[in-house]
Each structure stands twice: as C-alpha cells, then as structure tokens.
C-alpha cells in the first residue's frame, strides 16, 4: 500500500520536474484550438459529448466491459460517439464534439506507444457528405493546426521533433490492398515507418470494421472508409468514413459481423422508419495528434493523469 502511494506521489512530482508535460499542454491546447477554428470557419457547430448511453460503438476488437446499471437500465461508457453523431446531423448538418472515450484495452497494448484506455477524440460528422469531402476538411484542419503550433511555439521542432513539417495538400492515398502487397500483414506499421508525411489508408476490407461503416456498392468487398497514418512510425491517428443508414443493409452488416440487433433496438427503429440519412465523418485522437507533432515516445506523455492499459493509474 505504501509503495503504491509512493509511486503515485512520484508521478505527480514528475509533472513538476519534466518539462515535457508542460510543453505538451501548450501544444495540445493550440492543436485543439486549430482544429476547432477550422471547423468553426466551415460552418460546424460543437455539441456536448455523451458520456453514458444505452448504446455505444461495439468496436472491432475485444475490450473489457465498461457499463453500469442505473434504475433498471444498462448504460455503456462511451467508446465513441459514432451512433450519436449519425443522429446529431439530423439536427444540424455539420457537427463536432471533443469527446472523452473509455476503451478498457488489454494490457498487451501498453507498449504500443499509441494506446490509453481513457482518451479524447475530436469527433465530426457531416450530413450528406462523401468520404472525399471529410478527408478534405481534415487535411485543412491538420495543416492549419500544425502551422499554428510551429508559428506560436517554434521550439517544438528543435526541442522535440526536428523532422516535423507542415504537410502538403492533398495527402497521398494508398489502398489497404496496395499496402498489404508492399508491406505484408503488418502493413500499417510498415507504411507509417516508410512515409515522411501523413497518408490516407483507404478501401478498408469489409470485415475489418463495424456495421455502421458503409459498404462500397460498386466494390462490395471494401468499405468507403479511411484511416490517416502519421509518418515516422507514429501510426494511425484518424479513422472515419461514410455511414450505413438503410435498415436492411445495417441488419445484413450486423449479421455479417455477428452483432446482436437486440442491443441496438432504438437505433435500428430510427433506421427502419427512414429517419437516418446519409452522412460521413471521422474522429481524430487528440493525444495521438499531440504525440505525433511533438515526436514523443508514448501518448502517456501528452496528458496529465494518463491511463495506460494494464497499468495502475493516478
């Protein structure tokens, strides 16, 4: 018990003596400001995040359950606001939210450098948008945010990330099929280590994502999805794409993924009544974006009170 207390006190002391935490706060604040300013200028409105909900993103991999029962109803802690974003664009066609996410990942993710089990995404969604339109918006946002950081804090390059540069638009694109052919099964890490500017990874295979990701009607083996891959080995930083909105197609996708429709009754009823409309969007991880810009070893260095999978937290 005493050792645990001592370890926690040492963690607090590290905030005080390690300049990385102070610098990361400054950079992260400026990055968030740049992302918000870009979206605001494009007509987006910010909505408040959803922390607990009867439904949340099922994800495409296993995590520990994070739910509570309250007055007879089960509430999941938000893993992402994807389903809520689909509904929110019915109220306003362009929305975003700075959304806390809890994903109780397994301990093997601890050393990836990219995983926390509590993290923040800037989630955005646009009614009637295409994949290309969302990618275009995010290119503008990333370029603007990085340029602002380097303008306000020029020491970031010299002190932390000498090879950092403002990326050029448009970002290059590579399909998953092309990436696998070039880099093998570890294509994401191979691609990330081989590039010097962010690259869009597109045409995600059908079974690699969830029921809400839109199947390409012309190429049914792939999705109208994308990931943004940061260079220099920093890996994936954005995930998004177009959304399924038609009831029968969502049901088909659920069966294909083995997802229980009973867990999404309200959502499916909206689809069945034709309430859901076409949309597209994405989420950018704020800690991962900060890590990339600063060239840090691990996302734990990008925030106070970081929670790493499998580790005891302050």
TrEMBL record:
<dbReference type="Pfam" id="PF00152">
    <property type="entry name" value="tRNA-synt_2"/>
</dbReference>
<dbReference type="InterPro" id="IPR004364">
    <property type="entry name" value="Aa-tRNA-synt_II"/>
</dbReference>
<keyword id="KW-0030">Aminoacyl-tRNA synthetase</keyword>
<dbReference type="InterPro" id="IPR045864">
    <property type="entry name" value="aa-tRNA-synth_II/BPL/LPL"/>
</dbReference>
<dbReference type="GO" id="GO:0005524">
    <property type="term" value="F:ATP binding"/>
</dbReference>
<protein>
    <submittedName>
        <fullName>tRNA synthetase class II (D K and N)</fullName>
    </submittedName>
</protein>
<keyword id="KW-0436">Ligase</keyword>
<keyword id="KW-0067">ATP-binding</keyword>
<dbReference type="GO" id="GO:0004816">
    <property type="term" value="F:asparagine-tRNA ligase activity"/>
</dbReference>
<dbReference type="InterPro" id="IPR006195">
    <property type="entry name" value="aa-tRNA-synth_II"/>
</dbReference>
<dbReference type="GO" id="GO:0006421">
    <property type="term" value="P:asparaginyl-tRNA aminoacylation"/>
</dbReference>
<feature type="domain" description="Aminoacyl-transfer RNA synthetases class-II family profile">
    <location>
        <begin position="21"/>
        <end position="309"/>
    </location>
</feature>
<keyword id="KW-0648">Protein biosynthesis</keyword>
<keyword id="KW-0547">Nucleotide-binding</keyword>
């Amino acid at each position: 018990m005493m050792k645990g207390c001592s370890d926690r006190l040492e963690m607090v002391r590290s905030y005080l003596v390690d300049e990385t935490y102070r610098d990361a706060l400054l950079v992260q604040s400026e990055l968030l400001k740049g992302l918000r300013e870009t979206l605001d200028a494009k007509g987006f409105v910010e909505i408040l995040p959803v922390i607990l909900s009867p439904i949340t993103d099922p994800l495409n991999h296993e995590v520990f359950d994070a739910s509570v029962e309250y007055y007879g109803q089960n509430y999941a802690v938000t893993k992402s606001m994807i389903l809520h974003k689909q509904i929110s664009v019915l109220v306003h066609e362009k929305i975003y939210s700075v959304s806390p996410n809890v994903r109780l990942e397994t301990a093997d993710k601890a050393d990836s450098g990219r995983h926390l089990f509590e993290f923040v995404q800037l989630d955005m969604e646009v009614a009637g948008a295409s994949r290309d339109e969302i990618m275009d918006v995010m290119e503008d946002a990333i370029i603007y945010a990085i340029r602002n950081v380097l303008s306000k804090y020029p020491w970031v390059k010299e002190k932390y990330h000498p090879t950092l540069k403002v990326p050029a638009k448009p970002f290059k694109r590579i399909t998953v099929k092309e990436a696998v052919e070039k880099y093998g099964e570890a294509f994401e890490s191979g691609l990330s280590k081989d590039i010097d500017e962010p690259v869009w990874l597109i045409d995600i295979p059908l079974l690699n994502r969830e029921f809400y990701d839109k199947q390409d009607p012309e190429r049914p083996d792939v999705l109208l999805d994308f990931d943004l891959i940061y260079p220099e080995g920093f890996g994936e930083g954005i995930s998004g794409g177009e959304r399924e909105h038609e009831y029968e197609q969502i049901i088909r996708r659920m069966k294909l993924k083995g997802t229980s429709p009973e867990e999404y009754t309200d959502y499916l009823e909206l689809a069945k009544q034709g309430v859901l409309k076409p949309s597209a969007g994405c989420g950018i991880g704020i800690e991962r974006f900060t890590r990339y810009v600063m060239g840090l070893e691990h996302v734990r260095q990008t925030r106070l009170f970081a929670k790493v999978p499998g580790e005891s937290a302050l």
